[in-house]
Design goal:
The complex is a heterodimer of chains A (304) and B (237). Chain A is of the alpha/beta class and 304 residues long. Chain A contains twelve helices and twelve strands. With 237 residues, chain B is an alpha/beta fold. In chain B, helix 9 links the parallel strand 6 and strand 7. Classes of the chains: A alpha/beta (304), B alpha/beta (237). At the A-B interface, helix 3 and helix 5 of A face helix 5 and helix 6 of B.
């Protein structure tokens, strides 16, 4: 997704100039953007606190600004700078965090982002955007270019299965129709789940939705989703994020507030590092029950 | 204000007041911006903005009250003369650098001024900001430091010495002036847009004998007796 974001920003820049800050990251990825932007592409060095505040200051001076880093360096290290200098002022700064969830794999826990949007969404005015596929990135970049509030764009690795016909980007999209349980997924791991569902008949197949914008109050839940919730009444929410501050927590509150009479609500989410060992993104997903095989088991169990 | 609202921080307000008044009345142009990085001197800033006609007597009377815009540290949005909220130390310098950068790139006129405390330099982000400002050659940007030598729970020398602050900042490649921060002539000579960093040697609690150079007046609030004595000293000076 990083290359897609770079391409999209490079196309955007001539039409709608902005400042772009990187915390010394983007080697073999952001060079095309640097070519297009010249002096407005700023490598702020390994100093994320300063980078966020400088970008906030530039935004307050009238220049739209984007900030890029590996996800945890983008939101965790400079959290107070985001809170005070960006969010308290409702500065329309755009944060791009690369490597949502366990995407940096065996690079280790320091590079993972499993509490990113939950932490950020505790802040005033902040919104989070989680593309599921490469194709989502360009519409999201264009959307964020005109978005009047602070925003966090969580990039991951596209896992779109071959042949999947994607509906146009929207905050909520139904990717699979079915009469089993209802599954709501945040982020790219929906690709692996959709692939695993191939060959399953519509009676057993779950209905799968992908959610890309948080908090969920930002967008009305589509009527077909509400209809499916009332019809299927067994829900599994899946995300590469810890439970606290998660989309699952937001959805459970929303469902209760609406008085939806669900029969079951389950949440497949990141739990951290239970074995104390590290590996690929796939390794961590499996350990946390977020791989396609584990999810299929949860779906079968929920249906029984 | 501080007496009526029963709040402290008056020592660091009094050390910064001369510089704030000088900046706003003699140094700053109409298109300049000022950022109070040592946000705990908000009272002194509000008084300064009142002296420029940007705040009213009624505004000052609301300081630290319920439902006030005059919070104990400069608030975000809504007050003329306060372009950014501060209060957590170590933010203002970076924000000021970003504003200076943004203005330079857009070809906008005006200078950006930032006033910091000395204890604030214990925040690592200040040094990040210095590296950035020096590297980017931000010539539309001046930093002032209120060097009163006392912080919240001890002297700066005892807590985590910043000595020699001038030498440390010079080591980052910036020019540093050191002046008496209460001397109008010295302020007049030094506080100019060409300056990069100005260290203001000041007195915490300046102008009130029982507060001067006393660490406790970082936080203490004035009682009735203190207030009467302080007022008498200031009015007879």
């Amino acid at each position: 997704m990083r290359n897609a974001a770079c391409d999209s920003l490079a196309r955007l820049y001539p039409r709608q100039p902005f400042l772009f800050f990187t915390g010394d990251l983007g080697f073999r990825a952001l060079e095309p953007l640097r070519e297009v932007m010249g002096e407005r592409f700023i490598n702020a060095g390994v100093a994320e606190q300063n980078m966020i505040s400088v970008a906030a200051g530039a935004s307050l001076a009238g220049l739209d600004s984007w900030v890029y880093s590996i996800a945890p360096f983008c939101y965790a290290r400079p959290f107070e700078q985001i809170r005070n200098d960006v969010c308290l002022h409702d500065v329309a700064l755009k944060l791009i965090g690369n490597g949502g969830g366990y995407a940096y794999g065996v690079m280790g826990a320091s590079h993972h982002a499993i509490e990113d949007y939950g932490a950020l969404l505790t802040l005033q005015h902040m919104h989070a955007f989680v593309p599921a596929f490469d194709e989502d990135v360009d519409p999201l970049v264009r959307k964020l270019a005109g978005f009047p509030h602070p925003a966090y764009l969580r990039l991951g690795r596209c896992e779109k299965p071959d042949g999947l016909e994607l509906p146009p980007y929207a905050p909520w999209r139904r990717l699979v129709s079915g009469e089993g349980v209802l599954v709501i997924v945040v982020g790219p791991l929906v690709g692996g789940l959709v692939a695993a569902l191939r060959g399953i008949g519509p009676e057993e197949r779950p209905e799968v939705w992908v959610l890309s914008e948080l908090p969920i109050e930002s967008n009305a839940m589509p009527a077909p989703l509400l209809a499916s919730l009332q019809r299927l009444r067994r829900v599994l929410v899946v995300e590469e994020h810890v439970a606290h501050g998660s989309a699952g927590a937001m959805l459970s509150r929303a469902f209760l507030s609406r008085g939806l009479a669900l029969e079951a609500f389950e949440h497949a989410c990141a739990r951290g590092y239970e074995s104390g060992t590290y590996g690929s993104q796939g390794f961590h997903r499996a350990e946390n029950g977020l791989d396609a095989q584990s999810l299929m088991g949860r779906i079968r169990g929920l249906r029984a | 204000m501080h007496y009526e609202s029963g709040v402290g921080h008056i020592g660091g307000n009094l050390s910064a007041l001369d510089a704030l008044l000088h900046l706003h009345h003699r140094a700053m142009g109409t298109e300049d911006l000022f950022i109070l990085s040592k946000g705990h001197a908000a009272g002194a800033l509000y008084v300064t903005l009142w002296s420029r006609g940007l705040l009213s007597e009624e505004d000052l009377g609301e300081f630290h009250g319920e439902g006030t815009r005059m919070s104990g540290h400069p608030p975000p949005r809504g007050l003329a003369g306060i372009p950014v909220a501060t209060g957590s130390l170590g933010h203002g310098l970076s924000v000021a650098a970003g504003m200076a950068l943004g203005r330079r790139i857009q070809g906008q006129k005006g200078h950006v001024w930032c006033l910091m405390s000395d204890g604030e330099w214990q925040e690592g982000s200040c040094w990040e900001a210095l590296i950035f400002a020096r590297h980017r050659g931000l010539e539309n940007f001046t930093v002032l430091v209120d060097l009163n030598g006392l912080q919240g729970f001890g002297s700066t020398a005892e807590v985590a010495s910043m000595e020699d602050l001038a030498g440390r900042i010079r080591g980052f490649g910036l020019e540093v002036l050191e002046i008496d921060g209460h001397d109008p002539e010295a302020l007049d000579r030094a506080v100019r847009p060409e300056a990069e960093v100005i260290l203001l040697k000041t007195v915490k609690g300046n102008g009130v004998s029982f507060m001067e150079n006393r660490m406790e007046w970082h936080y203490l609030a004035l009682d009735e007796e203190h207030y009467a004595r302080a007022r008498e000293e200031v009015e007879s000076a």
